[in-house]
Amino acid sequence: MEVQKLTDQLIDIHLNSFKAMSTMGEALTTRGEESMLLYLYQQNEPVFSGDLTVHLGLTSGRVANILRVLEAKQLITRSQGIVDKRQVQVSLTDEGKKEAETCYRKMIGEYREMLEFLGDDAEEATRLIRKLVKYYYIRGNEARS
């Protein structure tokens, strides 16, 4: 494996296909409001705002801003923690659950289209994406240390 040659190719792809690379990145990740709705939906119980910060890899300020927007849209409710009043618990409203289900169906459709496009390479692409996620997870943990 010629790492330098492959590195040059990836840089060339990135610089000459920025819009496609950004679209691919967006397809492979869910951030902000949608990711928060999906995470809350997946948990199916109230979640502490600090847990959202850790799970989504966002700053507490960014999480607070997203929570403000979702609350204004009446998709979530916030309440004080029972044991520790300083903690904030976040729950989906019924409307929030409907919105999360819509986001989930959209995500399924986007992944299905991508995998159908890849055809015989879909399994290998999924394996590589899983490996890249692990790489960035490890890299992110090292940066926090």
Which tags fit this structure?
145 residues; mainly alpha; Arc Repressor Mutant, subunit A; 3-stranded antiparallel beta sheet; 7 helices
What is the topology?
Blueprint: H1 3-16, H2 18-28, H3 32-43, E1 47-48, H4 49-56, H5 60-72, E2 76-80, E3 88-92, H6 94-118, H7 122-144
Antiparallel strand pairs: 1-3, 2-3
Helix pairs in contact: 3-6, 4-5
Helix content: over 70%
Number of domains: 1
Q: What is the global morphology?
A: globular
Mean pLDDT: 86
Structural class: mainly alpha
CATH topology: Arc Repressor Mutant, subunit A
| CATH architecture grouping | Orthogonal Bundle
CATH homologous superfamily designation: Winged helix-like DNA-binding domain superfamily/Winged helix DNA-binding domain
Q: What spatial order of strands do you see in the largest sheet?
A: 1-3-2
What share of the residues does DSSP label as strand, in percent? 5-15%
| Low-confidence runs of at least 5 consecutive residues | none
Q: What is the chain-wise order of helices and strands?
A: HHHEHHEEHH
Oligomer: single chain
